[in-house]
Amino acid sequence: MLVAFSVAPAGGGSDSVADVVAEAVRVVRESGLPYETTSMFTTIEAETWDEAMDVVKRAVEAVQARSTRVSLVLKADIRPGFTDQLTAKVERIDQALGDA
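User: That's the sequence. What structure does it adopt?
Assistant: Structure tokens below.
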């Protein structure tokens, strides 16, 4: 399963949230799961719902430790029996465009 999520402090006094968001990304990196971080989301690939949600929960808690209010956006692609979809989905698009 793929889970794309964005977690950030909400209601703070600064436009920059990079230092706090970095704590959430640290949780993802330390999880050992395959992941990709972009400017808007971090996507993780996990075998189970519980494994994915544990990482999301700990990332939220990391932000919550530095902010009294947290914003979370989450999107999941739940497809049992499929692995390596973090890259395979992009490869299929590249093939359709003739880039691969």
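The first strand starts at residue 2 and ends at 9.
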